């Protein structure tokens, strides 16, 4: 009989049942992506033709830039040092401000949820505004110069560092904290003795990352008048002093490379 | 004579007991009754083993005794303090009650000695904790506790570089350093090999001879018989057996764990 070879029950096949709906979704996603990118293309005013006509101009500048100017090297080095100093002070201030706030913004150790949510919102707001934008505001408030840059870096880095630190705290195993609390020790003691030794290495690593990031970021802060090598960069561009511009770009490259490698080496040593 | 009278007097007002649970009930809605009217008391210097199949309520009992879980009904008194009276009373009570965990819960990056000093946290001022400058007396006490568990030579070793058995002995030293009246240990040897289990239980046993009461939940009946003075058995959230260890018979064991036919029930 035929019924013997034919299966009596047809098993429900999850992949097949999924198939048609899945295909429809794929087409829909594809259409959405196409719409998104064509809209973006228009909004961004992408025009490869203009790039082609602009390239020879840039090549002309490049040929005029060689050899790099060395007569103002002492001043430019001073400006570079200013940039590194801005990043160092800004990042350190941010770290000191982030230290108490990261505890409040970590769900597992926060003193109360009534403080946790406002702390998170505050940090997200700081993080959402770039140090460049903060610097722009501070130039108007405290005047031109590196101090405005320091303040800009400090505020943005405060938010970013505290958020990453809070995440590091949330990722540590709860057992040792529970064990310390179970001895009858107060919350402050538990945090100081059982929590910080565990997260300290990743906290230092995050801090170093932000210092390195801020050296890179502060090279452009001068463009808005917040001091450092960026200010010289903008001046040279405005005056079309190409050999001087080349010197500045080379200085930035060397500085960023050295700082990147130092920070990376230090972070690897921590692990 | 006077001493005997004093002892009777203190026993009658409850001071002779280091920890006491009265009518503890805890339900986890919708359907789990973890504890169902559990009462028992711990006397100074006795080793109580808590036996019972998985799901019998052992862990909930330990969590209630330490104030990590609040029971629906019933009271817990530690060293004469009602632990749910106020957070302050809970913290005070916790000083008298040391905990040992199945997973040791040491601070990984700190040395064995620094982990033992966790036992002193509640006893020293906050500035000493933050600056990590413990008194000479506290450090000597901690070293003495490491000596008791046989790990004096590993005092400077980082916790995560010790073996599981060694870590659990550091945890015992931490409990001893607390100078508590009772040590509670929830499955202290469940993740250890037989040899380490024996050393860990021997360390707990030596704490008992120093006058500390120990309450430990164990999985193996033979370990309970070998190390404990008294055996309390839980089943379905109730105490089904409370007897001197020497009198625990085969029949009682069957009652605790169920006969072959019933074993899968819980």
What does this structure look like?
The complex is a heterodimer of chains A (271) and B (266). With 271 residues, chain A is an all-alpha fold. Chain A has a single domain, classed as MetI-like (MetI-like fold), CATH 1.10.3720.10. Chain A is 80% helix and 0% strand. The longest helix of chain A has 35 residues, at 187-221. The N and C termini of chain A lie far apart (71 Å). Chain B has helices spanning 2-12, 58-65, 87-95, 112-116, 126-130, 136-148, 164-177, 194-209, 221-227, 250-257, and strands at 19-28, 32-42, 47-51, 73-78, 81-82, 97-100, 182-186, 213-217, 230-235, 238-244. In chain B, helix 6 crosses helix 7 (164-177) and helix 7 packs parallel to helix 8 (194-209). Chain B is α/β, with parallel strands linked by helices and 266 residues long. In chain B, strands 6-7-8-3-9-10 form a 6-stranded mixed β-sheet, with helices on both faces. Chain B has a 4-stranded antiparallel β-sheet with strand order 2-1-4-5, with helices on one face. In chain B, strand 1 (19-28) and strand 2 (32-42) form a beta hairpin. The N and C termini of chain B lie far apart (51 Å). Chain B is globular. The chains are: A mainly alpha (271), B alpha/beta (266). The A-B interface holds A 175-176, 178-180, 182-186, 188-190, 192-194, 197-198, 200-201 and B 66, 68, 91-95, 98-99, 101, 103-110, 118-119, 121-122, 126, 129-130, 132, 171, 174, 178.
Average of pLDDT of chain A: 87
Say which CATH homologous superfamily of chain A is assigned: MetI-like
Helix content of chain B: 25-40%
The largest β sheet of chain A comes out as: none
Compressed to H and E, one letter per element, the order of chain A equals: HHHHHHHHHHH
Essential attributes:
heterodimer, A: 271 residues, mainly alpha, MetI-like fold, B: 266 residues, alpha/beta, Rossmann fold, 2 domains, 6-stranded mixed beta sheet, 10 helices, 10 strands, 36% helix, globular, disordered N terminus
């Amino acid at each position: 009989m035929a019924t013997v070879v034919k299966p009596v029950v047809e098993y429900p096949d999850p992949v097949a049942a999924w198939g048609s709906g899945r295909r429809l979704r794929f087409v829909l996603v594809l259409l959405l992506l196409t719409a998104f990118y064509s809209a973006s293309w228009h909004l961004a005013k992408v025009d490869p033709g203009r790039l082609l006509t602009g390239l020879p101009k840039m090549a002309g500048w490049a040929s005029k830039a060689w050899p790099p100017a060395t007569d103002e090297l002492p001043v430019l080095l001073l400006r570079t040092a200013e940039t590194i100093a801005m990043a160092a002070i800004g990042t350190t201030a941010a770290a000191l401000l982030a230290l108490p706030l990261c505890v409040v913004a970590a769900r597992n150790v926060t003193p109360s949820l009534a403080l946790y949510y406002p702390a998170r919102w505050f940090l997200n707001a700081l993080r959402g505004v770039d140090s460049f934008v903060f610097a722009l505001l501070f130039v108007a408030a405290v005047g031109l110069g590196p101090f405005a840059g320091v303040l800009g870096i400090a505020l943005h880095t405060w938010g970013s560092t505290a958020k990453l630190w809070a995440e590091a705290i949330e990722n540590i195993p709860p057992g040792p904290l529970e064990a310390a609390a179970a001895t009858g020790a107060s919350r402050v003691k538990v945090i100081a003795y059982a929590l910080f030794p565990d997260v300290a290495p990743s906290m230092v690593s995050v801090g170093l990352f932000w210092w390195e990031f801020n050296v890179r970021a502060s090279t452009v802060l001068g463009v808005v008048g917040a001091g450092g090598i960026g200010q010289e960069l903008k001046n040279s561009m405005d005056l079309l002093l190409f050999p001087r511009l080349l010197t500045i770009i080379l200085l930035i490259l060397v500085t960023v490379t050295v700082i990147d490698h130092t920070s990376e080496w230090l972070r690897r040593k921590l692990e | 004579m006077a001493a005997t009278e004093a002892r009777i007097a203190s026993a009658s007002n409850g001071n002779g007991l280091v920890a006491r649970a009265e009518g503890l009930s805890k339900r986890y809605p919708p359907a789990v009754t973890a504890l169902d009217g559990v009462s028992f008391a711990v006397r100074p210097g006795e080793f109580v083993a808590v036996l019972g199949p998985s799901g019998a309520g052992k862990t909930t009992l330990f969590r209630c005794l330490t104030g990590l879980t609040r029971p629906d009904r019933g009271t817990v008194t530690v060293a004469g303090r009602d632990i749910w009276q106020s957070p302050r009373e809970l913290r005070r009570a916790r000083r008298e009650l040391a905990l040992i965990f199945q997973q040791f819960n040491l601070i990984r990056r700190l040395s064995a000695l620094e982990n033992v000093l966790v036992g002193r946290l509640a006893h020293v001022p906050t500035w000493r904790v933050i600056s990590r400058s413990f008194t000479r007396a506290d450090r000597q006490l901690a070293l003495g506790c490491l000596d008791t568990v046989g790990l004096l030579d590993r005092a400077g070793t980082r916790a995560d570089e010790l073996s599981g058995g060694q870590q659990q002995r550091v945890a015992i030293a931490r409990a001893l350093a607390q100078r508590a009246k009772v040590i509670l240990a929830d499955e202290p040897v469940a993740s250890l090999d037989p040899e380490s289990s024996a050393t860990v239980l021997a360390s707990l046993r030596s704490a008992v001879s120093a006058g500390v009461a120990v309450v430990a939940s164990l999985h193996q009946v033979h370990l309970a018989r070998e190390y404990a003075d008294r055996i309390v058995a839980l089943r379905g959230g109730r105490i089904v057996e409370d007897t001197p260890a020497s009198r625990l018979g085969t029949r009682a064991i069957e009652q605790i764990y169920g006969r072959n036919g019933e074993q899968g029930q819980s």
